[in-house]
UniProtKB/TrEMBL annotation:
Keywords: ATP-binding, Nucleotide-binding. Residues 688-753 form the HTH luxR-type domain. Transmembrane segments: none annotated. This is ATP-binding protein. Gene3D superfamilies: P-loop containing nucleotide triphosphate hydrolases (3.40.50.300), Tetratricopeptide repeat domain (1.25.40.10), Winged helix-like DNA-binding domain superfamily/Winged helix DNA-binding domain (1.10.10.10). It holds the Pfam family HTH_77. SMART domains: HTH_LUXR. One of its GO terms (molecular function) is ATP binding. InterPro entries: HTH_77 (IPR058852), NB-ARC (IPR002182), P-loop_NTPase (IPR027417), Sig_transdc_resp-reg_C-effctor (IPR016032), TPR-like_helical_dom_sf (IPR011990), Tscrpt_reg_LuxR_C (IPR000792), WH-like_DNA-bd_sf (IPR036388).
Length: 762
């Protein structure tokens, strides 16, 4: 609401400085102002406007990783996250919004300084309760919303309603009492409430909730009573920190005793939570499990919790100011240690259950849930490694989250947790052995082969000492991958066969499927087509028996490689497209990259050299984004090199470079559409004065479905993609457009439609 002057000032500052920090008390509206500026400025940043939310992050060591996640940077190399981030942003014209930096001021100052030095077209907008204090930083203290001049002439009702603070109050009151408006009868009370709250947006929003039970005058009377008591009768305007604190105190006091207890206990969660988690962590000791739902509903009604609708379940989020308040109350009650332990225990069980159920029909929902719970999983790991005697639990959680690390943006973070746990837990246990081969696989994906070999050597010794067939099976599997990386295919085949035998003996379908996929590729590499096909089909059968999709997509890819080698280009293309469709739905860029590689080789073999060159151009972006070309499949590079040489020779240098550039200009979604449909995007020239849409064609398609009122689940079904992927697209749409609601997207789509049909808005 309002903020025209501040918005213009921040834009001016951003045009003059590459680092602008908005400061002010919690709840004053820094984030809202920053998002509005970002929305207005997005067309000036062709490489995107990116929101990085830091309220739930406590560890400064994870700052660069968190920024990378927000920028959708999946770096599979072993270099530090900050190096990958710098490399990614070096030539980008982008705006990064770092939100809620106050608990990480020093780390944010160091990171922004490094990024701005090495990425000359980058700009950073920061919200924090204090400035970063770095060279070149411009700061703007964000004031409260504008109020009528207390010494000026009395405004008309219409003029009063246009004051920023009053407009916000009326908007929030209208959500409680439809049709609420400023009138001659209530104008003094409305203005009094806004003035008593110093125009602080969070305070106004919390107070407006009370209109369910109070009139505006009653609300003002209670604010006057509370604040007069707090200041011993002083009528001076309260400092904003005290005003907000006292208002939160009042919200707390208006809760029932059990709601207060629930508020305090929920404060141990980071990010968001669902009802099941609330029942497990917050129940007991004064709150029966069957009371949790009603208590959560009560906190939602009082605006302490924010309800978020997701396809699979409703989730709840607490504003950072209210969460910190709850933690203070929890500590005062002497419950903080107990609830943090219960929180860790819950997410320890969640990670173990996810690992047990991932190879089956619930795979994609589990991937989605773990990504939603990432902030809580991180909190559980932080607790485990910081609390004396709990490191073994942390190592177990990090190990169980293997597929979460691989299929999301957290590969480097996962390896960091595993390295930390292995350092703290040197005992020769089965848990250490599992962590060693888990960490070893992450190292292989990052092409850190020597480190992986060292971990697997220790793991082999442990497996033999413990006489654990499962451990030895995974050691053989990943040792085979290392052998392939070192061009020792014969040894790799022997190791893969050993792994398959051990996993059959232990009835482990996950290890067996992985071993068979790699064995199929190895046999294909040596030219043993019958064996490659037989093993590949066996891997598909294992996956189908468990209704599993992710490993099946890789098995299909492997079969496609061999079918291509046999010269059946049509079937090979069909296999790769089948695999690509699943990898696209799961948003797995590594799988997508390998699929596009094989499709480029097929195109070159069919003498479709222009298509091959375009796919090679698109692949340059994908592999640069991942940070490790053909990560984990390095032995296939000879096919890539052969394809590139053949295509360059057939097209000629100039035509080859032009086609590669054409492919490199495709967005990620456009490249996948081209691979699947052999159709380049059509880009009509923009009309005079028109601005290009900031959304990709895929995002535009999803935005239109949002505008039609479809839920995330319905969008996923309509486009045949995972719900997690649909949610990720919608989050990126909101970020690019600078919006915070689906309704804003609908309005934007309507405006785009009018523009497309030549209808000008009035």
């Amino acid at each position: 609401m309002g903020r025209r002057h501040e918005t213009a000032e921040v834009k001016r500052m951003l045009s003059a400085s590459r680092l602008v920090t908005l400061t002010g008390v919690g709840g004053v509206g820094k984030t809202r102002l920053a998002l509005r500026v970002a929305e207005d400025a997005r067309r000036a940043f062709p490489d995107g406007v990116w929101l990085v939310e830091l309220a739930a992050l406590a560890d400064p060591g994870l700052l660069a990783q968190s920024v990378s996640e927000a920028l959708e940077l999946r770096d599979h190399s072993s270099r530090p996250a900050v190096e990958a981030l710098v490399d990614h942003l070096r030539d980008k014209q982008a705006l990064i919004l770092l939100d809620n930096c106050e608990q990480l001021v020093e780390a944010c100052a160091l990171l922004t300084g490094r990024l701005l030095r090495e990425a000359p077209r980058l700009r950073v907008l920061v919200t924090s309760r204090q400035a970063l204090g770095t060279a070149g930083e411009q700061t703007l203290p964000v004031p409260a919303l504008a109020l009528p001049d207390a010494e000026g002439p009395r405004l008309s009702v219409a003029a009063l309603a246009q004051c920023d603070a009053v407009r916000l109050f009326v908007e929030r009151a209208g959500a409680i009492l439809p049709g609420f408006a400023v009138t001659e009868a209530n104008r003094d009370a409305v203005e009094g409430v806004c003035r008593r709250l110093d125009g602080i947006p969070l305070g106004i929003e919390l107070a407006a909730v009370r209109l369910r039970a109070l009139s505006v005058q009653q609300l003002l009377d209670r604010l006057d009573d509370r604040f007069r008591l707090l200041t011993t009768g002083s009528r001076a305007v309260l400092p904003r920190h005290q005003t907000l604190r006292s208002l939160v105190d009042w919200s707390y006091d208006l809760c029932t005793g059990k709601e207060q207890l629930m508020w305090a206990r929920i404060s141990v969660f980071a990010g968001s939570l669902d009802l099941e988690a609330a029942e497990a962590v917050c129940g007991g000791d004064g709150i029966d499990r069957d009371e949790v739902l009603d208590l959560v509903a009560g906190l939602v009604d009082k605006s302490v919790l924010i309800r978020e609708d997701h396809p699979e379940a409703v989730r709840y989020r607490m504003l950072d100011t209210l969460r910190h308040y709850g933690r203070e109350r929890l500590a005062t009650a002497g419950e903080e240690a107990v609830r943090l332990r219960r929180h860790r225990d819950y997410y320890q069980r969640l990670a173990a259950t996810a690992r047990a159920e991932l190879f089956g029909p619930s795979q994609v929902p589990w991937f989605t849930r773990l990504q939603q719970e990432h902030a809580n999983l991180r909190t559980a790991l932080e607790y485990s490694f910081a609390e004396p005697g709990q490191a073994a639990a942390g190592l177990g959680i990090a190990t169980d989250l293997l597929y979460h690390w691989i299929t999301s943006y957290y590969l480097t973070e996962g390896r960091g947790w595993l390295d930390r746990g292995l350092f703290l837990c040197p005992e020769p246990t089965e848990a250490r052995a599992r962590a060693l081969w888990t960490d070893g696989w992450l190292a292989i994906i990052q092409s850190d082969i020597d480190a992986a070999a060292a971990m697997l050597a220790e793991c082999r010794e442990l497996g033999a000492r413990l006489r654990q067939e499962a451990i030895l099976g995974y050691v053989a599997l990943y040792s085979g991958m290392i052998a392939m990386c070192r061009d020792d295919t014969e040894s790799a085949i022997g190791l893969y066969e050993e792994a398959a035998a051990r996993h059959r003996a232990t009835h482990d379908p996950v290890g067996l499927a992985l071993a068979l996929i790699r064995l199929s590729l190895a046999h294909s590499f040596l030219g043993d087509s019958p064996r490659a096909i037989a093993v590949g089909e066996e891997s598909l059968a294992v996956c189908d028996a468990h209704q599993e999709g992710w490993h099946r997509a890789y098995a299909t890819m492997a079969l496609g490689v061999e079918v291509w080698r046999q010269g059946d280009y049509e079937r090979a293309t069909a296999l790769e497209r089948e695999s690509l469709n699943f990898n696209r739905s799961l948003d797995d860029p590594l799988g997508v990259g390998v699929n596009l590689e094989v499709m480029a080789w097929i195109s070159a073999s069919q003498s479709h050299h222009q298509r091959a060159a375009r796919l090679l151009g698109a692949l340059r972006n994908i592999w640069h984004h991942i940070g490790a070309p053909l990560s984990g499949y390095g032995h296939l590079v000879r096919y890539h090199e052969s394809c590139e040489a053949d295509t360059r020779r057939s097209l000629g240098k100039q035509a080859f470079q032009a086609a590669v550039k054409e492919g490199a200009r495709l967005s990620y979604d456009e490249a996948l559409t081209y691979a699947l449909q052999d159709q380049l995007p059509t880009r009509a020239p923009a009309g005079e004065g028109e601005q290009p849409s900031p959304l990709t064609p895929r995002e535009t398609e999803i935005a239109r479905l949002v505008a039609r009122g479809l839920s995330n689940k319905e969008i996923a079904a309509a486009l045949v993609i995972a719900q997690r992927t649909a949610e990720g697209h919608i989050e990126r749409i909101l970020s690019k457009l600078g919006f915070n609601s689906r309704a804003q997207v609908a309005v934007w789509v309507a405006g785009q439609n009018r523009s497309e049909h030549g209808v000008e808005a009035e």
